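Example record for the data management plan.
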Amino acid sequence: MWFINQFDPAAATYNIPVGVRLTGDLDPVVLRAAAEDVMQRHEILRTTFPSADGEPRQEIHDIEWAREHLDWGVVESAAELADAASRGFDVAREAAFRVRLFREADTEWVLLAVIHHIAGDGESMRPLISDLVTAYAARAAGATPQFAPMEVQFADYAVWQHEVLGDPKNESSVAGRQLGYWAEQLADLPDVLELPADRPRPLVASPTGAAYPFEIPRDVSARIEQVAADSGVTAFMVVHAALSVLLARLSATDDIAVATPIAGRGDRVLDPMVGMFVNTLVLRTKVGTFTTFTDLLDQVRRVDLEAFATADVPFEAVVDAVATARSQAFAPLAQVMLTLVHTMADTTADESVTVGDISVRPLEAPAVFAQRDLSVNLEAVHGGAWTGSLVYATDLFDESTMAVFARRLVILLDRLTEDTDGAVGLVGLLDDGERERLADWSAGAEMVVERRRITDASQVLRSKDDGN
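Corresponding structural encoding:
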């Protein structure tokens, strides 16, 4: 994260924005004080990452520095919110935390918080917003926020991680053993998985992305869960296997690498912390044309379990160990990511909560950033339809292409789970409407060919007659 940031501090690729709607009689001055309280509570939000001789280090600043350097603003338009979300951080000299407030109406406000990935992850946004709102409620009541004490800070975790993992150069250390596994597992992995794109890949990828929503119908999601139970795998593994089949079919290769995030918060003391705990695993499978889906699931189960058991060493160290090609045009090791989270079936659309006199409701982020060519995100609900989104690089793909990709993925999930003993390379990718159109086209083409054959034959006969 540090290296990429210093290469181009203006890039917003690794920005994590979160927005909430605040309803009530809100005081921006008090909210700024609450933001300072949050920076005092979480050291990582007042940490910079300068370097000495090219090696970065954490420099934790006091609260006075935080008050002076807090990137805070009350803006006049939604466009300014989007600008704040899309502007990078120079983490070597500024805190990786930004707050903007926009007043839509007398009692309607939009609060945007942005952190750089070096200081937080997706799981960090819940405690960040919770602490911010809690601090505001206390300050608005004229009191000092009374947070539950933090047992550790992110710097403590970083020190602990180095001590536990050991020196990556030492083959007997935890890091050394895990890097040895990844070096063997990812040896000779193709540098890039090229999917059919709407535009040539640029020399330097931009962070600009978009999201395409889709749904996995209830009958298909139920069959995914049933196949998982019958095969001794997880629903994630079933989806991983089907996605690998689709990627193999679209790229015309059998060597498929899919990335997936792992939360990395294995201890309850980390749950209330803001910090970058998430890690990335690379899941590599070989998808043969005549491999059955049952056999592919067996392979995926082994690959995924081995990866999850070797998930402590940071992804960046794996990239260095594998010595893969480094390019500004594509993400290293895997350009497609898969995420599946499980939610309760009774989750309602109204997620608003009330703290003091303020109602808080989550909003969609004002900008979408594509850290890879394509990210497949699924939200699984037991007993119901699953929702999903494709976050894609607009450098490469149009929305229409993503619509086709989503349709192909759902079709494969449907047909592969319906017949797990069939060859994965022979499963049809077309829906019924596409089949009918193809059949009509084929019939028309056959008529043209037959008409041409008859015409050619007539010409031959006529030539013979003329010769006679």
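Summary line stored alongside the record: The mean pLDDT is 89.
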